[in-house]
Design goal:
The structure is a single chain. The chain has 446 residues and is an alpha/beta fold. The protein has 2 domains: 186 residues, 2-enoyl-CoA Hydratase, Chain A, domain 1, CATH 3.90.226; 168 residues, 2-enoyl-CoA Hydratase, Chain A, domain 1. Helices cover 35% and strands 22% of the residues. The chain is built from 15 helices and 19 strands. Strands 12, 13, 14, 15, 16, 17, 18 and 19 form an 8-stranded mixed β-sheet that branches. Strands 1-4-5-6-7-9-11 form a 7-stranded mixed β-sheet, with helices on both faces. A hairpin with an 8-residue loop joins strand 12 and strand 13. Helix 3 runs parallel beside helix 4, helix 8 packs parallel to helix 9 and helix 11 packs across helix 13. The longest helix has 17 residues. The two termini are 44 Å apart.
Length: 446
């Protein structure tokens, strides 16, 4: 049990913050690395009643240097997780590996990377960077489903890297969440473990819940808050892909993933596409239902080549995902974005739209120039006439009513009824089962 050794160790304190009542059981506590202990504490215990394996690197022992013994201890946790289906939390705080001129350090990291890869998509993996995470260890941390960093922590491949701050990691999409200190980081880790299924065969958790106090559907972000149970939302990658939203919440007490393609009708950048794609794949791995809100004028083609690749990645992630998928078009869904994340081609189970939604292959103003150019001839005020025709186009050919009549959406719903509709849809889809074609994986570029 905890507290048999060196109770003042920061590594042990972090484990105490993670596990229920600060209680955990150590594994291989006397294993030596060269002339001292291995520099990592491996343990198991419970987080909100869920069994969890965790390791915490100990800087008080050789600066947490990684060698063969430490790698073996950590790899064993992954092997146990594969056998029992329990999540793994890795707390990183080490200056790197023991370097003796041989490939021993590479072999040690390789062993951990391989063990992590085996259980990827099988049990949730969370990396907490609470100090320094450098070199190959950075690859191990990024192998997890979520990376949580304390704001003073460092993350880099090479010691001279100038982009190794937590803030830089968040802006690049590596850090899922940045916290002020160890305590906050462990609270967020506990929150994620609580809301996620414990493995890929487990059902999503169910909780007692309270509805959001005030419903507000003035924009996508407020709609996300309004459909979730009170104080249940956990946003992921808030600093990356600023025109999109990803996060977990409960609706009617049941865990869901919530994505928003477009905030305030902004176009999606390559970063937004990759952020959403990664989130969908994570939800699909653990059969977490996904609710996608759409309000965007489409994809930003500022960098046409990389944008197309990112768009394709996003589209494929939605199409391949077999988890429950529900889309709500609450504003604009322009161009291939609708097909990628909300239409039949995305394999959405239900697609809803608000009465004022606009679903179109082109932005209304562009559509007018392309389709109704003759109507603009002779206009005394060209801009006013163009806007008038764009409004007409939005209310006719591109309207939610037209989309529903043609079977492109399943129903038109009032914003204030969104939560009720989603609760019913999630309930009826809870038994969804799909068999995939036999293959190892798709081969879409990432």
């Amino acid at each position: 049990m905890q507290n048999d050794k060196d109770t003042n160790s920061q590594a042990r304190e972090r484990l105490s913050l993670l596990f229920d009542d600060g209680i955990y059981n150590e594994i291989n506590s006397t294993v030596m690395e060269k002339d001292s202990l291995s520099g990592v504490i491996s343990a198991f215990g419970y987080v909100n009643g869920n069994g969890v394996y965790a390791f915490s690197q100990d800087r008080s022992v050789n600066n947490g240097a990684v060698g063969a013994a430490q790698a073996t201890k950590i790899a064993k946790l992954y092997e146990l997780a594969a056998k029992t289906g329990n999540p793994v939390v890795g707390i990183h705080d080490s200056d790197g590996a023991f370097v003796d001129g041989t490939a021993s350090s590479l072999a040690a990291y390789g062993k951990m990377l391989s063990a992590s890869a085996v259980i990827s998509g099988v049990v949730p993996q969370i990396s907490v960077i609470a100090g320094t995470c450098a070199g190959t260890a950075a690859m191990l941390a990024c192998s997890s489903d979520f990376v949580i960093m304390t704001k003073e922590s460092e993350f880099f491949m090479a010691p001279n890297s100038s982009a190794g701050s937590a803030q830089a990691a968040a802006k690049s999409g590596i850090a899922s969440i940045v916290c002020d200190d160890d305590k906050k980081a462990m609270e967020k880790t506990r929150e994620l473990i609580n809301i996620l299924p414990i493995n890929n065969l487990a059902s999503v958790p169910m909780f007692e819940y309270a509805e959001e106090a005030a419903a507000d559907f003035t924009n996508v972000k407020s709609a996300v808050s309004s459909v979730a149970d009170d104080e249940s939302s956990v946003e992921i990658c808030a600093e990356y892909g600023k025109a999109s939203y990803t996060g977990f919440a409960t609706i009617g007490g049941s865990t869901v993933g919530i994505a928003a393609a477009g905030l305030e009708s902004e176009k999606l950048s390559s970063e937004d596409c990759l952020k959403l794609a990664r989130f969908i794949r994570t939800c699909d791995a653990f059969s977490i239902p996904v609710i996608t809100f759409v309000d965007s004028e489409g994809f930003d083609d500022a960098d046409a080549v990389s944008s197309i690749k990112a768009m394709t990645t996003l589209s494929n992630s939605y199409a391949e995902a077999t988890t429950v998928k529900i889309a709500v078009v609450c504003g604009k869904a322009i161009g291939p974005l609708f097909a990628a994340v909300a239409g039949n081609s995305s394999n959405s189970d239900f697609t809803y739209a608000y009465p004022e939604a606009v679903i179109a292959p082109l932005a209304p103003v562009t559509a007018v120039e392309f389709m109704w150019h003759d109507k603009l001839k002779g206009a005394s005020d060209l801009a006013a006439e163009r806007n008038k025709l764009a409004k007409e186009y939005s209310e006719t050919l591109a309207s939610a009513k037209t989309a529903a009549e043609n079977g492109y959406i399943d129903d038109i719903i009032k914003p204030e009824n969104t939560r009720t509709v989603l609760v019913s849809a999630l309930d009826i889809l809870s038994g969804k089962r799909i068999q995939k074609l036999p293959k190892k994986h798709n081969n879409i570029q990432f």
